[in-house]
Amino acid sequence: MDDLRGKRFLASYSGGKDSILAIYRAINAGLEPMGLATAYKSDALYSWFHGMSEDLLQIASESLAIPLTLIRTTGVEYNVNFEKAMTNAKNAGAEVCVFGDIDLEGHFAWCTERCDSVGLLPYFPLKNEDRKNVVYEFIDAGFSAIIKIVDTTRLPEEFLGQTLTRDVVNDIEKHGADICGENGEYHTFVFDGPLFSGKIPFAVKERLVMDKYAVLNIQSCV
Questions:
Q1: Which residues pair with 220 in a beta bridge?
Q2: How many C-beta neighbours within 10 Å does residue 82 have?
Q3: CA Rg, the chain, in Å?
Q4: To the nearest 10°, the Cα dihedral for 108, 133, 5, 20?
Q5: 87-146, pLDDT tens digit by residue?
Q6: pTM surpassing 0.85?
Q7: What is the Cα–Cα distance from 128 to 139, expressed in whole angstroms?
């Protein structure tokens, strides 16, 4: 992607490992980060999909030194509100939007459609790469992530709260689940690594069961 070198980008940021690795690769490829965008449930106190609290997202943003935009939205208005945030980023100078998707065609199509609607270039740094290589690269680069959500129909609840290591992801694979959790088997929160100014302090507030999901409710210690 040499043609993108020097371009400023907005990143779709979940707080999880794939979005962080995509940002890491984009920066190493010569792109310049100018913002993070996170979809946040307007009728709850956490983000869509990864269940991140606002305080943790803000602290992560500060540690990454990349400004955060929370897209407060319902499911019905999700696409429209995401595009509004992208338009605001474009007006501020963004030319590219970075996504952490690996190989789900439906995700590529959705992200590309949003970008086409507002005039940004979609960039998928992890696209169609071997999933084991992706998760190993994340770990070997020095990032630290805790498993925050587990789909208990696909993985045992015992994985909840574990720090992602090669041994842990190999155990995930042994259970027949996607090693990257690309199909929602598990979600993570990245709290340390080469992009961060320091380790993000957090504490486990409680463990919850929400339908088929086991969820680790974590809060900032700052």
A1: 202
A2: 21
A3: 16
A4: 70
A5: 999 999 999 999 999 988 888 999 999 999 999 999 999 999 999 999 999 999 999 999
A6: yes
A7: 19
